[in-house]
Design a protein that fits this description.
about 210 residues; alpha+beta; Pnp Oxidase, Chain A; 2 domains; seven-stranded antiparallel sheet; about 35% strand; globular
Length: about 210
């Protein structure tokens, strides 16, 4: 029987397969759930946990989540994002993107309206953007969000600043001038839910 197998989780939401798990909130700062096949549950949501270490079997477990300020600063830093967009049929589209983000604001990406991304994106679309560090200590921010606006892109207000962000001033200007007048749209994405990990908090590779 699996119902004696208790685990401690450190996430805000656990996706649970119907018919496989049941969950209860423990009295300490963790969510505790039991593998009990007799129950059916679609998902379990818990209140935000304090950013502190918790104990399991007397050992300290480091909380690797970022704070609100840390995750916003991380996302605002320079990363090539991976944008995941649902499709009516088949798996979601996952594509690398340049993006712009300022703490507290929306995420903005540029794309051609006739590209696959452009055809899939609509106002109200729900999607996910991931930014990650690909060297030790590893880290990532995953943002689930909603498209709030799609409008024509302006070369000076939108394309040039984004190109300079990723290519530097000289190459960014050359890129913008070479693509001046090309049809593209600016997509604004409101962050709704954040998932984060920063392994530097464990002291490994820091």
């Amino acid at each position: 029987m699996l119902n004696a197998d208790w685990c401690y989780l450190r996430y805000r939401e656990l996706e649970v397969q119907p018919g496989r798990f049941a969950a209860t909130i423990s009295t300490d700062t963790s969510l505790r759930f039991a593998l009990t096949p007799s129950h059916s549950l679609a998902s379990v949501t818990m209140a935000e946990l304090p950013l502190s270490d918790s104990k399991r079997n007397g050992a300290m477990m480091t909380d690797t989540r970022m704070s609100k300020e840390e995750r916003e600063a991380y996302l605002a830093d320079l990363h090539v994002g991976v944008l995941s967009i649902p499709r009516p049929a088949g798996p979601p589209l996952a594509a690398p993107v340049w993006y712009d983000y300022q703490p507290g604001g929306d995420i903005c990406v540029l794309t051609a309206p006739d590209s696959l991304k452009g055809r899939l994106l609509k106002e109200g679309s729900q999607l996910t953007l991931v930014a990650q560090t690909e060297a030790v200590p590893y880290a990532y921010v995953s943002v689930e969000g909603t498209v709030t606006e799609i409008r024509p892109c302006d070369d000076e207000a939108d394309t040039r600043p984004l190109a300079r962000r990723y290519l530097g001033t000289e190459m960014g200007d050359a890129y913008t001038d070479a693509n001046a007048g090309s049809e593209s749209v600016r997509v604004s994405i409101r962050p709704d839910r954040w998932l984060t990990v920063d392994y530097a908090k464990t002291g490994i590779g820091g």
